[in-house]
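Question thread 4412

I'm putting together a teaching handout and wanted feedback from people who do this every day. The idea is simple: show students a protein as raw sequence, then show them the structure tokens that encode its fold, then repeat with a second protein so they can compare. Below is the first pair exactly as I plan to print it.
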Amino acid sequence: MAELFTREQARAWLRANNLKTGKGIQDAFINEIKGVLQEALEEEMNNTLGYSKYDYTNKNNDNTRNGHTKKTVKSQFGKIELDIPRDADGEHEPIIVKKHQRTISSDLEGMIVSLFSQGLSNRDIESHMNKIYGLEVSAEMVTRITDKILPIAKEWQIRPLNELYPIIYLDGIVFNVNKDGQIVKKTAYVVFAVTIEGKKDILGIWIGEAESSKFWMGVLADLRNRGVKDLLICSVDGLKGFEEAIKASFPKAEIQKCVVHQIRNSTKFVSYKDRKVFCADMREIYTAANEEAGLAALDRFENKWGIKYSYAIKSWRDNWQYLSTFFKYPPEIRRIIYTTNAIENFNRQIRKITKTKSSFPTDDSLFKILYLIVFDASEKWTMPMREWGIIVNQLRVYFGERVDTYL
């Protein structure tokens, strides 16, 4: 990559600006840097929206500019005041000065990794760096730089874990990956956990074939091999065989099947004219005060809809053992285990970032970006879950020494 400027250009710049003192040079550098950064920030917004300011002929979406936010960042030359562009839909993610970033770095590799973590392909990054920052960066260089993440990511994947996790959520996300010249479906198996301190953590991401209970059994065995001795409650979707996979490694774990998944499956073939009343009747099952009341509501539900939608009733009956686990707990615990919303919110973030990728060239390229998404999310998970003080004391009542040992 070429020098930013030659010595002769630097001298000419000093003379042109009549700079003779260190303070004057520092202030001038700050102004120059501010100008470059501000221009790059505006160009990034153009790139997000797909059109430049006032260029309405190329506008092809409903998102618009929404003013600026003042921000002060530190550089090696001093503080810089910037105006950060905003968009109406809140979709814009600045790269050169990221959200919450307070220090400006000249680290090219860091900038490339940041772009990669936002879901840009190597070719996109090559174009982006040239268009916005005027830097010549080849797709091959991008690959070499982002490949440096892999050893770190793989070390993270085998790191030792805590002995106890009170709650974990298990879910899989499907991606297209190139395998021997063919695009195949691969599943990223994600384990989302809550620690004894109430903080969120991703214990690992495993890339495998289509989601299966057999693969999950291997994932859970890996958790045990990395030091996990006990899981209190596992919140899972409706995958057949999940219970056996969990019990094989953690026989004392409570299992809660996701009620939201059950609702979706139950309403899949319900006619539009019946749907509103059907859902209202079904709601009485999972909002009941206790399991006995829930079963009574299920009986009423079956009496009313059993002939017309027998498959829905059968599904509730067949899965009741693991759909009803949450009834034994107080509202604070019920709220966080009866659905897999916690992990699905994280998965939505993954989808948002990877939605432009029709496929990934290798398993490693998929794993790299998933690790970076985890890394970025983890930096925000600094506080315990809401009402965790209440929840952990409730868990102590229900699980006794299994919790007390780790407090």
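The second pair follows. I'd like the answer to focus on this one:
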Amino acid sequence: MQAHTKKRLTKAKVANVIWRGAHYAVPFAIIEKYKIASNDTDASTIDEVFSDLFKQYGKQGVLLKGLRHKEGLSQIDLAEMLDITQSNLSAMENGRRSIGKEIAKRIEKKFGLDYRLFL
């Protein structure tokens, strides 16, 4: 009678995927199911997808508001971190006030983002 042995695991071919800052090892067989042809005409750029928001609030305002939401901060919390008033922050997020180089550099210092994104 033969003894039962463990089946050796074979190394699966995996791709390293980074999504929202987290790293994943996803088998190629799974990725192939979701592959999109590179000449797909349904693909859109970020500018196309968010064009209405960019027109309404300005690209920098949308980026600032997105950063605030990503970090889970209220307007008051972020305003205190940047040493500005909440009403000024609101005006920046809504495109009524420009962010300015000094405040953009404060954002860079606090969050490690290039300040030029906000100019």
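Top answer:
Good format. For the second protein you could add a caption like this: The mean pLDDT is 84. The beta strands are 14-19, 22-27.
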